[in-house]
């Protein structure tokens, strides 16, 4: 197998268009920058990825509940989250070429007038950087006025915080537990680029996993378990603090990627430095993938403290705290010095948060006192760990990783270049293709259709009778179908009893062929795709 040469992204984009994975949005009108459509195969691939995420993050667990919220929400949400004031990129205009660029990317971008040159080399005079808010604005109702302004959500996470209490009260969950959501997000990116990597409309898969603050863990369990030096920390324990939970989710996410065909070796863990961390974040790990255009973020896993719920509590005036009976019971039994020490730590944390948010010192001290007094009544605002992944970036990573070229014999035995998408069978858009050896033999066609119908209720199968078998294999290789099944005269029993009711099962990656009994087909294929 040889590695694809020269400009792999172009080759990949061309394959994606030719075979119906990804199209430019509004292409017949010249396209619209930063928007992409998924064709028949792309739509299947995306559905599989989202389904697997939901299965793993929600359905296979007892401690996560799902949510599906609206894209347009009360604008107060975006004031509380900080997006109205600070969700901005610095933008620079070039007065000569009229190009508009993100200030932090300016040295990487080709000049529109002289693509061979990088912008930083372009002689054109630049404007000073200006802040540009990335949220798309719209108006709710018939009057276009400031009071009616609303935003398309730039992330799915905030709806989870805004609905935290409703989910808590209706799902019979208690902290620690999570709320998960998959959905569209919109960002008016200054320079959408690298194919679908940075789009203006995209999908996210986000989990907000709510945990006890460390002071509460300590009060209930006596101490906070120490973080492990490396790897998965195992089954969650009652004495886990934010560090272990964070580590746990980083490892769970890496495991997820491994299960869908992106092994650990294809990912890089990038721990943000103290300077890079958002002011409320205690730690953030970005999981990076080596795209053809560079090693870039697929997902971020952030320990966000109690910032988000606290902000919504202040802005909405509704309490976001929880009542924890175990804390209440444990607190009463704590010696006075332990109570005081934990009270003080919680108080300092709350006061620091309030001061950062601009609350005057005296007021911050009063509110922090009230918050810390809540511990004795079993009350606190949960902290959160947030694994936040982009569906479209993951699709692009899966396609880039799956893309390969090798040499395979053509009909006459001559070696030719074969393009293969080596998708993991779990994500492959089509799981099995079914071919009658010849299309003009009704018995073969009838038997092939019967095999298709046998499998169809359980997986996406594709029936193809057009062209030579070798060509049909190549078409499936190119779209990543892991298995091809050929119904031939042996199947019909015309060449003796031994191979009657068997089909040829051809493996995409090894191109090896074996006979398999029709009654065993379904369980064999299910074992590969589940
Ligand atoms: P970047 O630094 O690349 O702009 P980010 O750190 O702003 O990304 P987050 O706000 O953490 O991204 O969003 C979480 C995830 O959503 C990202 O890891 C990514 O997979 C996805 N995502 C964010 N912006 C885009 C975009 N413009 N197009 C496609 N996916 C995106």
Question: Secondary structure elements and their pairing?
Answer:
Elements: H1 8-18, E1 22-24, E2 36-38, H2 40-59, E3 64-66, H3 76-81, H4 83-86, E4 88-93, E5 100-102, E6 130-133, E7 137-139, E8 149-151, H5 157-162, H6 164-171, E9 177-186, E10 201-211, H7 214-221, H8 242-259, E11 267-271, E12 283-291, E13 294-303, H9 307-316, E14 322-323, H10 325-333, H11 336-356, H12 361-373, E15 379-380, E16 383-390, H13 391-402, E17 403-409, E18 415-421, E19 432-436, H14 442-455, E20 461-463, H15 469-479, E21 483-487, H16 489-492, E22 502-507, E23 513-517, H17 518-529
Parallel strand pairs: 3-9, 19-20, 19-21
Antiparallel strand pairs: 1-2, 4-5, 4-6, 7-8, 9-10, 10-16, 11-12, 12-13, 13-16, 14-15, 17-18, 21-22, 22-23
Helix pairs in contact: 2-13, 7-10, 7-11, 11-12
Keywords, please?
530 residues; 4 domains; 35% helix; BirA Bifunctional Protein, domain 2; seven-stranded mixed beta sheet; globular; 17 helices; 23 strands; alpha+beta
Descriptive report:
The protein is an alpha+beta fold and 530 residues long. It has 4 domains: 41-83 and 135-321 and 382-415, Bira Bifunctional Protein, Domain 2 (BirA Bifunctional Protein, domain 2); 88-133; 328-380; 430-529, 3-Layer(aba) Sandwich (Rossmann fold), CATH 3.40.50. Helices cover 35% and strands 23% of the residues. The chain contains 17 helices and 23 strands. The protein has helices spanning 8-18, 40-59, 76-81, 83-86, 157-162, 164-171, 214-221, 242-259, 307-316, 325-333, 336-356, 361-373, 391-402, 442-455, 469-479, 489-492, 518-529, and strands at 22-24, 36-38, 64-66, 88-93, 100-102, 130-133, 137-139, 149-151, 177-186, 201-211, 267-271, 283-291, 294-303, 322-323, 379-380, 383-390, 403-409, 415-421, 432-436, 461-463, 483-487, 502-507, 513-517. The strands form 7 sheets. The protein has a 7-stranded mixed beta sheet with strand order 3-9-10-16-13-12-11, with helices on both faces. Helix 7 packs antiparallel against helix 11 and helix 11 crosses helix 12 (361-373). The protein is globular. The two termini are 27 Å apart. The model has no long low-confidence stretch (mean pLDDT 94). Residues 155, 187, 189, 198-199, 202, 204, 297-300, 388-390, 392-393 line the site of adenosine-5'-triphosphate.
């Amino acid at each position: 197998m040889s590695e694809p040469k020269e400009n792999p992204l172009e080759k990949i984009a061309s394959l994606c268009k030719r075979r119906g994975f990804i199209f430019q949005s509004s292409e017949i009108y010249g396209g619209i920058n930063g928007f992409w459509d998924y064709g028949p195969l792309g739509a299947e691939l995306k559905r599989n990825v989202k389904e697997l995420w939901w299965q793993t993050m929600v359905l296979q667990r007892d401690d996560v509940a799902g949510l599906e919220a609206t894209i347009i929400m009360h604008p107060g949400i975006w004031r509380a989250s900080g997006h109205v004031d600070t969700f901005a990129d610095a933008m620079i205009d070039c007065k000569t070429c009229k190009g508009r660029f993100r200030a932090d990317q300016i040295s990487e971008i080709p000049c529109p007038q002289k693509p061979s040159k990088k912008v930083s080399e372009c002689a054109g005079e630049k404007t000073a950087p200006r802040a540009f808010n990335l949220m798309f604005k719209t108006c709710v109702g018939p009057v276009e006025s400031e009071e009616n302004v609303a935003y398309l959500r730039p992330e799915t996470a905030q709806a989870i915080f805004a609905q935290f209490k409703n989910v808590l009260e209706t799902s019979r969950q208690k902290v620690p537990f999570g709320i998960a959501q998959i959905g569209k997000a919109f960002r008016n990116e200054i320079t959408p680029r690298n194919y679908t990597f940075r789009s203006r409309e995209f999908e996210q898969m986000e989990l907000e996993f709510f945990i006890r603050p460390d002071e509460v863990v300590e009060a209930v369990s006596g101490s906070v378990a120490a973080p492990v030096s490396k790897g998965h920390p195992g089954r969650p324990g009652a004495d886990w603090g934010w560090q272990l939970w964070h580590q746990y989710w980083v490892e769970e996410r890496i495991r997820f990627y491994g299960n869908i065909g992106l092994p650990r070796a294809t990912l890089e863990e990038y721990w943000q430095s103290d300077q890079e961390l958002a002011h409320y974040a205690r730690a953030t790990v970005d999981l990076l993938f080596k795209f053809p255009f560079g090693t870039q973020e697929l997902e971020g896993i952030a320990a966000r403290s109690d910032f988000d719920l606290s902000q919504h509590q202040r802005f909405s005036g509704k309490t976001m705290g929880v009542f924890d009976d175990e804390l209440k019971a444990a607190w009463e039994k704590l010696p006075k010095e332990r109570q005081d020490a934990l009270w003080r730590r919680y108080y300092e944390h709350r006061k620091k948060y309030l001061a950062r948010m601009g609350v005057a010192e005296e007021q911050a001290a009063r509110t922090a006192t009230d918050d810390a007094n809540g511990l004795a009544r079993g009350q606190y605002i949960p902290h959160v760990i947030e694994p936040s992944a982009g569906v479209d970036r993951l699709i692009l990573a899966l396609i880039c990783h799956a893309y390969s070229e090798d040499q395979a014999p053509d009909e006459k035995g001559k070696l030719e270049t074969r393009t293969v998408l080596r998708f993991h069978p779990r994500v492959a858009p089509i799981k099995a293709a079914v071919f009658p050896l010849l299309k003009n033999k009704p018995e073969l066609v009838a038997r092939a259709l019967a095999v298709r119908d046998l499998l169809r209720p359980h997986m996406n199968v594709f029936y193809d009778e057009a062209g030579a078998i070798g060509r049909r294999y190549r078409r499936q290789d190119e779209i990543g179908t892991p298995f091809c099944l050929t119904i031939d005269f042996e199947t019909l029993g015309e060449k003796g009893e031994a191979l009657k009711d068997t089909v040829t099962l051809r493996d995409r990656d090894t191109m090896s062929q074996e006979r398999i009994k029709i009654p065993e087909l379904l369980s064999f294929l299910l074992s590969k795709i589940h």
